[in-house]
C-alpha cells in the first residue's frame, strides 16, 4: 500500500526542502501527472517533433548536397519557396501549442491536487481545466511576445541615441540591458502559476510576480537553474541515439565518392529518435515548472502567511497538534 501524505503547499521552505518537495510531488503523482502530460500535451509534442525532425533531415540532406555539388543557389531557392516558410510557421505554432498544453497541464494538476488533497486526480478533471484555461495561456504567451517586442523597440531607439553620443555608453548599456533581461526573466517566472491559482489578469499577475520575487530573486534563480540543469542533462542522455545517427549519416555522406543521401529507413529512424527526445525534453520541463510552483507557495507564505493563518484558525477544531514536519 502506498504511504501517501498530502504535501502542504503553503509552507516556508529553504532550497533543499524545495528540491525535495519537487521530487516528492513527482514521486507521488508520477502516474497521474505522467498520464495527463502524455495524453494532453503528448499529441502536439509528437506532431512538433515529427515536423521538426523531418525539416532537420531535409535540411541536412540539402546541406550535404550543396557541399558535394557546390550548387549555392539550391539553398536560396529552397529558402524562398512558400512551402519552406509554411513549415517554419507550422513548427512555431505547434511548438507554442505543445508548450502551452504541457505548462497548463502541470499547473492545473497542481491546483486540483491542492483542492482534492489526494494524488488520485482524474484525467477528465485535468483535461477539463486545461480546456478552460487554454486560451488564457495562449493569451499570456501572446502578451509576453507583444511586451517583449515593445521593450525591444524601446531598447533599439535608446541604443541608437547612445551610439550618437559615445561607443563606450553603448557597451555599458549592452551590459545593463543583458542583466535587466536576466533579472526580468526570473522575476516574471511566477506569472503562469499566479494566473492559474489566483485567476489574475496578465499585468496584475506580472506585478504580483515581481512583488513576490523581490528580495528572493537569487533563491528563485538558483532553484530554477539547478532544476533546468538536471532536466537538460537527462534530456541530452535520451538524445544520444539521435545525435549518434546524425553523425553516422554525416560520415556516410562525406565518405562516398558519389553523393548518396541517407536511406529512407535512416531518415525514419532519425525523425523517430528526434521526436522521442523532444517528447522527453518537454516532459522534463515539469521539473522547473513544479519548482516555480513551490517557490510561489513558499514566497506567498513568507510574505502573506495564509498557511499559518489557516493553522491558527483551526487550532480550536483540530485534534492533537502535529509537528507539521515534512517527511521525505
From TrEMBL:
It comes from Chryseolinea soli. The chain crosses the membrane at residues 37-56, 84-113, 134-163, 169-197, 218-245, 265-287. Keywords: Membrane, Transmembrane, Transmembrane helix. This is Glycerophosphoryl diester phosphodiesterase membrane domain-containing protein. The keyword Transmembrane helix applies.
Amino acid at each position: 500500500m502506498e504511504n501517501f501524505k498530502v504535501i502542504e503547499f503553503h509552507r516556508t521552505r529553504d532550497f533543499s526542502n524545495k528540491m525535495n518537495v519537487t521530487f516528492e510531488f513527482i514521486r507521488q503523482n508520477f502516474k497521474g501527472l505522467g498520464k495527463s502530460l502524455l495524453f494532453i500535451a503528448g499529441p502536439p509534442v509528437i506532431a512538433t517533433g515529427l515536423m521538426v525532425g523531418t525539416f532537420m533531415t531535409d535540411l541536412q540532406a540539402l546541406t550535404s548536397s550543396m557541399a558535394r555539388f557546390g550548387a549555392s543557389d539550391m539553398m536560396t531557392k529552397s529558402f524562398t519557396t512558400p512551402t519552406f516558410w509554411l513549415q517554419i510557421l507550422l513548427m512555431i505554432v505547434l511548438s507554442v501549442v505543445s508548450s502551452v498544453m504541457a505548462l497548463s497541464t502541470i499547473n492545473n494538476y497542481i491546483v486540483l491536487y491542492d483542492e482534492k488533497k489526494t494524488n488520485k486526480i482524474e484525467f477528465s478533471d485535468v483535461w477539463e481545466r486545461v480546456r478552460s484555461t487554454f486560451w488564457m495561456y495562449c493569451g499570456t504567451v501572446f502578451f509576453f511576445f507583444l511586451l517583449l517586442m515593445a521593450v525591444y523597440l524601446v531598447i533599439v531607439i535608446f541604443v541608437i541615441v547612445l551610439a550618437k553620443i559615445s561607443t563606450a555608453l553603448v557597451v555599458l548599456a549592452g551590459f545593463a540591458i543583458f542583466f535587466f533581461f536576466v533579472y526580468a526573466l526570473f522575476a516574471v517566472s511566477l506569472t503562469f502559476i499566479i494566473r492559474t491559482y489566483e485567476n489574475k489578469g496578465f499585468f496584475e499577475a506580472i506585478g504580483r510576480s515581481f512583488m513576490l520575487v523581490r528580495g528572493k530573486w537569487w533563491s528563485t534563480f538558483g532553484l530554477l537553474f539547478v532544476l533546468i540543469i538536471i532536466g537538460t542533462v537527462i534530456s541530452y542522455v535520451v538524445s544520444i541515439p539521435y545525435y549518434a545517427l546524425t553523425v553516422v549519416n554525416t560520415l556516410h555522406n562525406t565518405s562516398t565518392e558519389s553523393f548518396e543521401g541517407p536511406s529512407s529507413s535512416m531518415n525514419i529512424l532519425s525523425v523517430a529518435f528526434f521526436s522521442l527526445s523532444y517528447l522527453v525534453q518537454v516532459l522534463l520541463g515539469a521539473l522547473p515548472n513544479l519548482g516555480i510552483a513551490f517557490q510561489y507557495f513558499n514566497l506567498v507564505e513568507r510574505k502573506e502567511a495564509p498557511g499559518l493563518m489557516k493553522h491558527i484558525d483551526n487550532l480550536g477544531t483540530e485534534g492533537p497538534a502535529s509537528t507539521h514536519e515534512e517527511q521525505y
